[in-house]
Amino acid sequence: MTSNEIWRLSATETVARTHAGELSAEDSISASISRMNAVNPALNAVVVDLSTEALERARNLDKARAAGATPGALHGVPVTIKINVDQAGHASSNGVTALKDLIAPADAPIVENLHKAGAVVIGRTNTPEFSFRADTDNPLFGRTHNPWGEHISPGGSSGGAGASVMAGIGGLAHGNDIGGSLRFPAAANGAVTVKPGLGRVPAYNPSQSAERGMLAQSMSVQGLLTRSAADLHLSMPTMIAADPRDPFHVPLPWRGAPLDGPIKVAFTKNTFGYELHPEVEAALDTARDALVDAGYVVEEVEPPNVFDAGRTGYRALMGEVYTLMKQDVDAAGSQTVRDIFEVYFQEFPPFLETDLLKMMAKRTHYAREWSLFQEKYPLVLTPFLPQPFFKPDRDTEGAEGVHEVLGCAVYSYAFNYIGLPVGCVPSRLADLPTGPQPINVQIVARRWREDFAVDACAAIESRAGRMCDLLWERMS
């Protein structure tokens, strides 16, 4: 195979070839590095180039394989790591200039699990300051661009991850999600992801000097952005391997027991008074039809109140942020991010003191409502955003900009607050006056059943096709 053919391989295809001995880890990694060198200068998605150590690791994997070692589940797959997670010997800067020398003493669990599986890290990807925007730009590394064009934000906070994997830089891209930071970049770039549920993927940063707030602990999860649903089924079993540094990790297998009969899917187009764009509605209809064709029973029915849960949850998170994080943002953040946080506090008036404790407790009420609802409907098909994805720096344009970016995104952060797994998959390519852009939908799964969400994403993908194929035609 030529280098141009190798970087196009999905993670699943790469593993099939490396395990069969048809492709060396070195050739796989070399091809991905060549692709990174070709397209990353225009994207600025990967901001720490690890080519040298990646090639050395790939050669060592090949030597071990030749000596009789059994290849790992991700043998020879090129991956990227977001710069807010620890990777030994590298800075976990989180997009903040003051943290540019915060060198990680050891790998975070997700990095360690990737290494154990035989994956090779080729670079570290960009994030906004403090990983707390749905767009990706910072004073330390600058702006990341969307490979579909500069008319669309790359999303955030895992914007570098979404842009890199869709542009062909690596087969898997690590990201994380406290209010949508896996799903915003997936929607912006046309990637596939699953936001794992609470406790599914072990998390810990060895460089941290204090524990995170309770809501940050319960809402934030680690995950992957991919170009196909099959790559999530391949890689997520490795990601959920236990790590004793996360005492609240839940050691369940990736695949749970099958259900009797066809799975019922609740389907809603409710956008709570926000205008539902025709392209988003068309994407929802395509996803519904794909699920029906795949044998799911889809019923248009309203799930428990997502708007109330989402707004309550994000106002509670803002209360914790105001109490524990605002001082750091004011001290180390740029004027841009300080201004954005001020508007966040206006859009989501923080619950504080006793009210904050009450709203943290109310999380169980919303989770119970959803648990009961999903006894009948294990999956729920929803919009992600009511409108096509926004332009770069939209959240810097005052209250109106923040409202378009985050205010209407209740289907995103509601499920961080409740702790349910959510798949996000493109089902349509919209041809808008500003240019083409993918439209993603969401699949909310029953607790502990990320596999159900990914199965549904695969069914939708079978109808819509892989968005990367359309993107690479435009990029070539």
Automatic annotation (TrEMBL):
A Pfam family matched in the record: Amidase
InterPro entries hit by this protein: Amidase_dom, AS_sf
Entry keyword annotation includes Hydrolase: yes
Residues annotated as domain Amidase: 28-451
Coiled-coil intervals: none
Sorted UniProt keywords: Hydrolase
NCBIfam families the record matches: PRK07487.1
Name this protein carries in UniProt: Amidase
Organism: Parasedimentitalea denitrificans
